[in-house]
Amino acid sequence: MERKLTTKQKIFCDEYIKSGNAKEAAIKAGYSPKTAKSIGQENLTKPDLKAYIDAKMAEIESHKIADAKEVLEFYTKVLRDEVVEEVPMSTADDVVVIKKKPSFKDKITASKEIMKRYPLVDPIEKQKLQKLIADTRISEAKATVAERLGNESDDKLDELMDKLIKASEKSQE
Q1: Same domain, 141 and 168
Q2: Exposed (0-12), middle (13-18) or buried (19+): which is 39, by Cβ within 10 Å?
Q3: How far is C-alpha 138 from the geometric centre of its chain's CA atoms?
Q4: For residue 112, with 0-12 CB atoms within 10 Å meaning exposed, 13-18 middle and 19 or more buried, which class applies?
Q5: 110 and 127 share one domain
Q6: Is 2 within the bounds of a domain?
């Protein structure tokens, strides 16, 4: 069961996270400057305070690293000209900062990076496309055979179609 921290303990933990100094954190939390060093060290050994500090440190670290959604949002902003780059340009007298929209090359690079994450070569879509192509070939072959045979029996047509379907299934395996 997790114990709730007192206001003083929470302030101590937050100040310790900022400074890394237990004595200073204890003083800022309201402990006596005379006992701040020992109280600060003692607080760092308390499991509840240590757990709070560890959790906050992990949270801070996780916010430093961009997640996939944030990266994709950035690439999309580049692609849509929603970001600008500040480029220093030197003149005869001074350095001027110019705001520049992403170049065509930057947009292509951003597009490629987005497409790496959303490839069009999805295995299921690829299989659907192969099946569609095979069905089209079968239909074309069927029409060609029907033209050649004219009024002859449908049995020959069915026999030929079975052969084509089997050959198509073998090529997909």
Answers
A1: yes
A2: buried
A3: 42
A4: exposed
A5: no
A6: no
Structural tokens at position 49: 């305070």
Return the C-alpha torsion angle 52, 54, 55, 61, nearest 10.
140
Same domain, 29 and 52: yes
Domain count, the chain: 3
**Is residue 11 located within the same domain as residue 60?**
yes
Distance CA 11, CA 9 (A): 5
Q: Which residue has the tokens 């009024």?
A: 151
pLDDT tens, N- to C-terminus, the chain (173 residues): 456 889 999 999 999 999 899 999 999 999 999 999 999 999 999 999 999 999 988 888 777 777 778 888 898 999 898 999 888 888 888 888 889 998 888 888 888 888 777 766 667 777 777 787 887 887 777 777 777 766 555 666 677 777 777 777 776 66
Q: At 102, list the tokens.
A: 């992403």
Beta carbons of 6 and 46 less than 8 angstroms apart: no
